[in-house]
Amino acid sequence: MEFNVRRLAADAGTFLSRAVQFTEEKLGQAERTELDAHLETLLNRAESTKHWTEKIMKQTEVVLQPNPNVRMEDFLYEILDKKVPTRANNHELLGECMIDSGHEFGPGTAYGSALIKCGETEKLLGSSQKEFIQSSAINFLTPFRNFIEGDFKTILKERKLLQNKRLDLDAAKNRMKKARAADARAVNLNSTPPLGEEYVAHFSYMLSFLHVRWLKLWAEEVQQAETELRIAQSEFDRQAEITRLLLEGISSTHAHHLHCLNDFVDAQASYYAQCYQYMVNLQKQLGSFPTTFSSNNNQPSGSFSASISVPTAPAAASLPAPPPSQASPALNELRSTSGTRKARVLYDYDADSSSELSLLADEVITVTSVPGMDSDWLMGQRGNQKGKVPITYLELLN
Q: Which ranges in the chain belong to alpha helices (H)?
């Protein structure tokens, strides 16, 4: 019990000393030991890393789950340490709705069969989305969250301890300065009594005795202040080194987060490629259905068909065969005369070499046929840019 009381009294004294030093620094009445520039840079870098890591995490969660209510529900389950219930996402709900309506209209009808096929594809999209969200949460969000809740909390703890050691050091410096100033004033005291009466001798003796005791007292005070200053300086230097080593580990954190970012990009690329493949397969399946249906509003079947037709983007692996519209007299005339024509770009195209020209969908370029060129290619020109372009990506204009 005695040890605990002494420890409590010592801690209270230390806390009071730090509070006084902090207050005097804020009021400009005490000097402050500044950290070296390198350590300050590392501290700012750590704060910046924490700030942007939190923002990236927040925005990524919004991308993965746009519904704020669902995000709040997942957060509550995480706090309560309970498993999040399995729920269908929007794609899966849409797929179930389409499948049910398709069975209602009849799987044997063209519309009912198309609804069922679209519903099955939507469910596949929903399943792929769940896999993408799970992969992103494990490989991207979790490492970022571990840094915020683990490594950075350790940095904050050591930085706070460094701040306390700095306050102790500055308080020791102030005590040392005050002790030396008081010692200097004690030395300058005049202890020689005036000559004369007899009682003055007794007073002189007492004054000299008190003066000597005063000098010894302040000498001991100065010696104790010097010892405390050395200890405080040593502890401050040791804590500054510990904090510096932790802060230099931010570089390793950046390297790890870069690896996680690559995993996130790979997961996104895989997810969107899978979704694209699902939709291409669905387009092929829907293409087997008749494109002319009876209409209830006396609209010509041709215009209805045109309104629901969706152009299918060519596969990146190989160029598809030219559509019938391209195998027209206009194309033959272009090749025979080596003239120029305007053409509209159907799809985006990235050039594979410097001899090719990159294209953007819906832009209009000038094309010409060059003798000896492969029949699947034309020479395209956009302003001062010129290069080969694939015919299958173009629609010749009259």
A: 2-26, 37-64, 68-79, 90-105, 110-136, 142-146, 152-187, 199-248, 250-287, 301-308, 329-337
